[in-house]
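thread: overnight batch results

M.L. [08:02]
morning all. the overnight job finished for the chain we discussed friday. pasting input first so we're all looking at the same thing
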Amino acid sequence: MMKRYRIARIEGRWTNFVPPIQGGAFCKTPTEPSSSATDGGITSSNATPLSRTPSPLFDQSSSHSELRRRPNDQQRDHDGSLDDALDGMVYLDMQTREQINLDLDRYPAVDTCTQQVIVDKYRALNEEIKRRGLYQCDYRAYAVELFRYSLMFGAFWILLLRGHYALSGFFLAIFWQQLVFTAHDAGHLGITHNLHIDSVIGIFIADFLGGLSLTWWKRNHNVHHIVTNSPEHDPDIEHMPFFAVSHRLLSNLRSTYYDKVMEYDAAAKFFISLQAWLYYPVMGLARFNLYRLSWDHLLARRGPQKGVTWWYWWLEMTGQVCFWIWFGYGVMYSFIPTNTDRFVFIMVSHTVSAILHIQITLSHFAMSTADLGPQESFPQRMLRTTMDVDCPQWLDFFHGGLQFQAVHHLFPRIPRHNLREAQKLVQEFCADTGIPYALYGFAKGNGRVIGKLAEVSRQAAILAECQRSMMAKGFFAH
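M.L. [08:03]
and the structure it wrote out:
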């Protein structure tokens, strides 16, 4: 449908505007009062007065396209102590600039020519992947998956009937963990590549068997793939007040996805100060929050209501009813005799599935959340904000394709059973373009996540000390 709104074509590579949320301002071009070919007479400029307090980072005279540190540049980004700051935001902007400079030193330059070369090689890589048939699904692999799912569900059911409720809950959790991998494949149309067939497969797994909304996940996940690890845009790293993976979340940042301010309030200050310790316990309770998000999405009718997918809502609501009948009434109420046993069963089945939530967050929480500007290419941003998990091939079933998140973010519709072969091509692409390829073992990756959470906690503590110092000096006396 976008073709009907096209007003012109441009030659060369499109340069994105700097968004207003990052300091970009827009005004009519003085010399061209009429609409131009590319932007309707509206230009992005940081010279226009802003409707907020200027940011030391984003409201500087140089554009993002010029951001590139010289190798021998030893100039410090800031001078003086934190006590000289008039506002805690100065400290946060200082940290943001430092993270950007670190990425600019490590990754290829974000000038147009360098990024265009990366884009051209990325497109050539996509053609090579097509030539090798890696977009084609090997359905024999799903026969093996189905056999594994049947074993896990059978163990859950037999143990439930025999009264071993803790063990039964354990196998149900592993059953759910493994099922989600196929739901993820279906959500990306990576099984049959047919919208309706893959969506029905995904809804059956997510809603009927797992009690979670597939269309909620797709709405969330599509945004995650477009603006990966962007603190103000990506819902997959917006977990206030429990987690902050970027110091920018310490400044009452507004989420464009949830359309609300993620307040850095007293609760957030408490949880974030302990987030490195609370990471695993909170992951253990994450599935309960997914139920809430799924019902909020479905009851608010945020999913598709028109077009060819209008009937998905009805199928999902049917799936939700079926799930709570077979799980809520059939399993929890009918088969488990006492409240104590019910509590043990539900806690085991839901906390063991924390493995999945750790696997989901592992590839992003420890990676960069900096914005290198609109000139940065899609493949470079995906590789800068995503890491892969190294594991032997025989253990691929345990990670279900999530160990190849960097490859998956570059090519979301490659069936997961082909991702290991595609990984070799991506590694060659990274070596050719000079983009670092992040690959860590499962244990080391977890260590990096905990380290990142601890780092943001330290930054929050420094910010709090800065604010206390300013209050003591009377800056906030009014």
